Structures are given as structure tokens and as C-alpha cells.
Amino acid sequence: MEKWTGGCLCGAICYEIDPRDTKSWYCHCRMCQKWTGSVVAPSVLVARTDFRVTQGTVKYFTSSTLAERGFCESCGSPLIFSPFGQDWICVQTGSLDDPEVAPPIGHFGIEGHVSWLPIDDDLKKIRTEDDPWIREMRGKTPQDN
What we know:
The protein is mainly β. The chain has a single domain (4-144), classed as Metal Binding Protein, Guanine Nucleotide Exchange Factor, Chain A (Beta Complex). Helix content is 9%, strand content 35%. The protein contains two helices and eleven strands; from the N terminus they run βββαββββββββα. The chain has helices at residues 30-36, 132-137, and strands spanning 4-7, 14-17, 23-27, 41-47, 51-55, 59-62, 67-71, 78-83, 88-92, 106-108, 124-126. The strands form two sheets. Strands 6-7-8-9-4-3-10-11 form an eight-stranded mixed β-sheet. A three-stranded antiparallel β-sheet has the order 1-2-5, with no helix packed on it. A hairpin with a 6-residue loop joins strand 7 and strand 8. The protein is globular.
């Protein structure tokens, strides 16, 4: 299986993914909207062990008690949603060299969906509060993980 590659806008950060067990989602939650500056943020869920930075250093910002978000310090490209204490991360689909390889299987955080962006597919739709991981993590601090 061929590795997926990607990186930031300015080229300072490059990465590769072993795509053996990935899932891609559209995220409509307000946190992702704010982070990306877009009303929907497609991302690829991947095992931490299947992701490797091959050039540069990802800078992280603690965005909540649940996770930190990785970005390029030079150009500001959002790259990674990294939940504390988990063996997976989400990589921004738009940062892949070939985003075609990661078609989404569903819509997450659907409560944040904006009315003027039609969703006319039959993909799964999940509210943030209905996700088992979110329910488990609510109220924890990064030190608890």
C-alpha cells in the first residue's frame, strides 16, 4: 500500500501516513470551524503510529481540555487535531498532497452545520454529544489523560 503524503502551505512541514486503517470525516463543530476558518473541516482519522513528520516541526496549541491542534508556525496551516491520551489523531484532508485518496464517510459535529451549506449526501451524521469518546472525555483535564 502506497503511503499518503502531505504538508503545510509553505512547505516547511511535510508528513507521510500509512493509510492501512483510516477514516475520513467532515467536521462541522464550532471548534474546527474557528480553527480552520471554514464552515466545514474534512479530516482523516489515523493511528498515531501511522503518521510521521518527515520535514519540519509541528507547533501545538492546546485548544481545549480534550486536545491540542498542530499547525505550521511559519504559514499557519492547520494540520493535526491531537486528542490527549488517545492512540489516534486527525489530519486535515486539505493538507494531503492528494486529497482524493480520503473521501469522507460521514459528517461529525452536525449541530454546527450552517444552513446555507447544503448536505445532499447519504453519509452518516453525528452530533458531537452523541460521540462516545466525547462523552467519556467531558470534564477531564489534559493531566487526567
